Amino acid sequence: MGNPVPVSHGSENVRSKCMTPLPHFKAFARRFSSGTEPRMDSNMHSVQGGSQVHRAFIALGSNVGDRVEMIEKACLELDRANIKVRRTSSLFETTPMYVLEQDTFINGVCEVETTLGPMELLDTLQSIENALGRKKLIDKGPRSIDLDILLYDQEIFSHERLDVPHKLMLERDFVLRPLCQYVPIPPSIGKRKAIHPNIPRLIPHERPPQPGKNTQTYSEYLKALPPPEPTPHSTTPISSTFPSLHATDPTRNTHVMAILNLTPDSFSDGGTHSPSDFTQLTETVRKFIASGATIIDIGGESTRPGSTPVGADEEIARVVPAITHIRTSIPEAANIAISIDTYRARVVEAACAAGADIINDISAGLLDPEMLPTAARIGKSIILMHMRGTPQTMTKLTEYPGGVIPEVATELRGRIAAAEEAGIRRWRIILDPGLGFAKNQPHDLEILRDLDRLRQVEGLECFPWLMGPSRKRFVGHITGVKTPKERVWGTAATVSASVAGGADIVRVHDVHEMWQVTKVADAIYRV
Q1: For 409-449, how does the pLDDT look when each residue is reduced to its tens digit (9 = 90+)?
Q2: How many helices (H) and strands (E) does the chain have?
Q3: What are the structural domain ranges in the chain?
Q4: Cα–Cα dist 310/497, whole Å
Q5: What does the mean pLDDT of the chain come to?
Q6: What does the sequence similarity comment in the record state about its family (predicted)?
Q7: pLDDT (0 to 100) of residue 272
Q8: How far is CA 371 from CA 191, 360, 410, in A?
């Protein structure tokens, strides 16, 4: 068997690169290249293009070069060809299935809307593959990009070049696993109505369109397949120099995110770090890295309860020089990810241009209508945190009559739907339940206790999760420690609980101490 490529270290920021657009896709001749008419099931009408909008699911795959980057380029080209990518699955690291002597794949599925008929859609997909440099040397062999039509509405379609549903999809774990992630958009939250109200959106529990009686759902087909070895793991890219997150890998290590607040009024460390003192900044960042931090979260505005917001210009003036300095003057930080802690799109734009890798939005796009479209355009991974209201009003919005876990899950699914509607890919999303934000002490403790249950809610599986319990008020209430900086031991317990519950990232002030906690907790729970 060939030597597998290393696990993807993410991709470059595809959308922000100066990528030369592929040639505009010219109108295809409205006839099938072979001259053979398609064969339809007797109960189905002939599928044609035109003005009617159709829903299709397309398999995505790559095992050559920067695999995530190639898939993201393909999705951009689908949009440019007027094939609207509505939703995407997670991406999964998978082993080859048919030709074993090749490198590992990244696989996923996207849901698209198109006015093209099946054959026109096929021609367009193959044109995108060719334009992206695909070279097919052997059948089912290595490929830089692979785009296959899986489903087209609920139609059964047969042609010598195309079968819909895809004739091999029900035997492929790497197809069914991402396909079964498609769950309904919460009706009270999703803005867009289903194009086909008669077609259920709950893909895992749908049945494939097949002639004759069919009793198995997609989910049942997936469960009936032999478990692949090794188990495919979801992958969330961060940057070309930072390892991807693998939220479904039980042996993964927990990342420590160091908090760097360049603010005078943060609840715990306000005034500690000055945005203009680069000597102190260098010492702080080097200490974070030496202490075990792999991500540094930089914030320029306090979001503690009751805090006073600052303007975008002031926030940019605080964070951008610091990010630029870290990226240009601290060699030790070359492989460290930088996260920008903001809810403003303008700040995100400036921070990412300066070198930030991750967007950390406490409002999940609710406080700035431009945030999600901006994040989609920039193409960085984004942390969507659960919160209600604003930092000034959130303490009054702590009612969860349906239970904190179910309601947080429902509201996060709504923010995921909003992010996907804006064009953010599912594999670019990290979730945060928002400890201390629109929650009281019992809520925070229940989330820590039941994080694993929250992670397994349908529609929330396979996402990486961030937990931010550091020095929080509930820790002080329980321990009686009034000074936030002295809540180290209480924070240690919450960090250990976060790891036990499945957190991928813990956001902390006391980096060295919490790194030790995660190392021991990983040794206990990540096996």
Answers
A1: 999 999 999 999 999 999 999 999 999 999 999 999 999 99
A2: 14, 17
A3: 39-234, 253-525
A4: 34
A5: 86
A6: In the central section; belongs to the HPPK family. In the C-terminal section; belongs to the DHPS family.
A7: 64
A8: 17, 11, 21
- How far apart are alpha carbons 176 and 183 in whole angstroms? 13
Return the amino acid letter for 49: G
Tell me whether the CATH fold assigned to 39-234 matches the one assigned to 253-525: no
Q: What is the pLDDT of residues 72-116, one digit of tens each?
A: 999 999 999 999 999 999 999 998 878 777 888 999 999 999 999
C-alpha to C-alpha distance for 508 and 331, rounded to whole angstroms: 23
Say how far apart CA 15 and CA 64 lie, in whole Å: 20
Q: What tokens appear for 290 in the block?
A: 């030496």
Per the CB < 8 A criterion, the answer to whether 249 and 233 are in contact is: yes
Of 356, 368, 137, the C-alpha closest to 238 is 356
Respond yes or no: is residue 507 known to be catalytic: yes
Neighbouring-strand partners of residue 341: 299, 360
Which helix (DSSP H) or strand (DSSP E) does residue 465 occupy?
none
Q: Rounded to an integer, what distance in angstroms lies between the CA atom of residue 386 and that of residue 430?
A: 11
Residue pair 14/376 in contact (Cβ under 8 Å)? The answer is: no
The catalytic residue among 318, 344, 425, 507 is 507
In the numeric block, which tokens belong to residue 21?
């657009």
Per annotation, catalytic residue among 143, 413, 472, 487: 472
**Residue 27 has what pLDDT?**
35
Please report which helix (H) or strand (E) contains residue 40, including its range.
Answer: strand 39-40
Fold held by 253-525: TIM Barrel (3.20.20)
Q: How do strand 381-385 and strand 358-361 relate by DSSP bridges?
A: parallel
472 is catalytic: yes
In sequence order, the β-bridge partners of residue 385 are 432
